[in-house]
Known about the structure:
- This protein is an alpha/beta fold.
- 41% of the residues lie in helices and 22% in strands.
- It has helices at 5-17, 20-27, 31-45, 61-89, 101-118, 170-175, 222-230, 244-249, 278-294; strands spanning 50-52, 57-59, 93-99, 122-128, 142-146, 155-162, 164-169, 192-194, 201-203, 211-213, 217-219, 236-239, 252-254, 264-270.
- The longest helix is centred in the first third of the chain and has 29 residues, at 61-89.
- The mean pLDDT is 87.
Amino acid sequence: MKPNFNDMMSFAEVVETGSFTAAAERLGRGKSSLSQSITRLEGDLGVRLIQRTTRRLSLTEAGQRFYRHCENIREIHALALEDAHTEATALSGRLCLTAPHALAEAFVRPAVTAFLREHPAVEIVFHSDDGQLNLVDHAIDLAVRVDMPQDQSLKVSKLGEFRDLLCAHKDLVTEHGGLPNDLAALKDWPHIANQWQGQQIAYQRQGETAVRLRPHLRCNAFHDVLGFVRDGLGVALLPDIAIREDLRSGEILSLFPKDEIAPVAIYAAHAFDSFPPKRVGAFITCLRQLLAQKVQ
């Protein structure tokens, strides 16, 4: 049988204290119980470790060698516990993140900046990607996702909400005679879309038939869509949290400003079973706080 770890540590205590009585007192055990541990250990190993006499104890040659191994194992055990405790309590180590471009621009990147200033011992790897990267395959610790992730194995927590707005540059609105009255009026306007929206995009308002349009410009990244909207090249669906300054300045206009648009939920997701590293939970808190500031 494989020797029991506790029996090995009990043997080390006997060697270091020089007697069963002293070792039993240090361990808070009975002397007979400790003696049984050593006997069991010797039986599991199939070798005598301690020569017992009425006056003193002495180690056999095998016992001397085995004690040195016990010392090494105890040191490794202590280091492992210390490392695990540090992992659970200190904010350090690697944190790999992913978020879609629009949310990265709006609040995830500012959250990274704030987090690193407060916790400089953390090393962050940041993937801005509109694709749904597999967390395990890409060694990602935390993903920011729009809407509830479909992968049921992920642990998710809601960060907050945003609203999508149909937007255009003020000059483009002026060119087309002002804000449109309905979606149908947008058929004559140029449109910009992100790749994830597909080759044909659909706009929907409450009480109106959905309008399907083919964009004349498609991009694979949000910041390009926003840049082209700022250039006056077309209408695009943009998240309100990413264009607040543009809306305040009046450079970009919401085409239907009085619409009650249904909110879109934002989630943080990770694949840790029960005990995610403390840095993961701390960064989720940071994300939630930054998002709350953005939507005020």
